[in-house]
């Protein structure tokens, strides 16, 4: 991996209010780890973003130069972590890790698929990348920019695992050997458009007219104090 130079400044004040003021002034707070204790420093966000632009992964080997110090106080380090604003995507904070050229370190390296899977060309399958980074152990000067994953032989249902990858010389992959890296899955079935069901006809039942019953005539109520008249007997036939 190519080593790049990053100029940093020491800072004394810390805290959220100080960090906001520094960002408004065009600088980003950072922490340098690896010494006797963490050191608060400042970095130029434009310089950091330029280093990682277009790279696969964020691991970058650096030579740190302290601004304003005799000899520059140069140290070897890597970018350990970057924090971005979730809305504006502006760089908010940087974690730097000081390293030694003769001691192995553990870093994460990007995985790059190489080739077109046979299952994509011949079976119309879809390549699915399961992991995008691997954990590796190596000397700082041996950090690879990426690890290639040859996916050209994969058919639908095949899985490429970590155990099948070729690590560069001097690099040991720490990710579990059985971890899936890539696979080819069947194409998604296209659902046929569902035809709209015809609107059900509304049947109006004819109104049934029934014969009106003659109204029952109620007998007048008897006057108060008078007995109701008995019905006259029918005259016998002679």
Describe the protein.
The protein is mainly beta. The protein folds into two domains: 99 residues, Ribosomal Protein L25, Chain P, CATH 2.40.240; 89 residues, RNA Polymerase Alpha Subunit, Chain A, domain 2. It is built from three helices and 13 strands. It has a six-stranded mixed β-barrel with strand order 1-3-2-6-5-4. A four-stranded mixed β-sheet has the order 10-7-9-12, with no helix packed on it. The chain is elongated, with a radius of gyration of 43 Å. It starts with a strand and ends in a 53-residue tail after the last strand.
Shape: elongated
How many helical stretches?
3
CATH architectural designation of the largest domain:
Beta Barrel
Under CATH, the homologous superfamily of the largest domain reads Ribosomal Protein L25, Chain P
Say what the CATH topology of the largest domain is: Ribosomal Protein L25, Chain P
Order of helices and strands: EHEEHEEEEHEEEEEE
- CATH uppermost class of the largest domain: Mainly Beta
The biggest beta sheet reads: 6 strands, mixed, barrel
Strand numbers in spatial order across the main sheet: 1-3-2-6-5-4
Compute the number of structural domains.
2
Q: How many strand elements?
A: 13
> Into which percentage range does the β-strand content fall?
25-35%
What share of the residues lie within helices?
A: under 10%
The radius of gyration computed from the alpha-carbon positions, rounded to a whole number of angstroms, is 43 Å
Low-pLDDT windows of residues: 234-238
How far is it from the N-terminal to the C-terminal residue, by CA? 143 Å
- Determine the mean pLDDT: 82
Overall SS class: mainly beta
């Amino acid at each position: 991996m190519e080593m790049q130079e990053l100029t940093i400044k020491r800072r004394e004040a810390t805290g959220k209010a100080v960090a906001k003021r520094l960002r408004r002034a065009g600088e980003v707070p950072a922490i340098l780890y690896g010494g006797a204790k963490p050191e608060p420093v400042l970095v130029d966000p434009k310089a950091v973003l330029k280093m990682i632009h277009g790279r696969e992964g964020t691991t970058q080997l650096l030579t740190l130069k302290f601004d304003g110090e005799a000899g520059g106080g140069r140290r070897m380090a890597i970018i350990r972590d970057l924090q971005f604003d979730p809305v504006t995507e502006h760089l908010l904070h940087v974690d730097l890790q000081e390293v030694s050229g003769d001691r192995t370190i553990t870093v994460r390296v990007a995985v790059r698929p190489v080739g077109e899977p046979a299952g994509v060309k011949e079976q119309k399958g879809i390549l699915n990348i399961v992991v995008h980074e691997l954990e590796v152990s190596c000397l700082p000067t041996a950090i690879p920019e990426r690890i290639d994953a040859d996916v050209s032989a994969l058919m639908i249902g095949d899985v490429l695992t970590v155990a099948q990858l070729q690590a560069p010389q001097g690099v040991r992959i720490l990710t579990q050997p059985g971890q899936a890296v890539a696979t080819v899955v069947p194409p998604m079935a296209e659902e046929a458009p569902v035809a709209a069901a015809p609107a059900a006809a509304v049947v109006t039942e004819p109104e049934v007219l029934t014969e009106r019953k003659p109204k029952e005539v109620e007998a007048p109520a008897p006057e108060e104090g008078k007995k109701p008249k008995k019905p006259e007997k029918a005259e016998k036939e002679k």
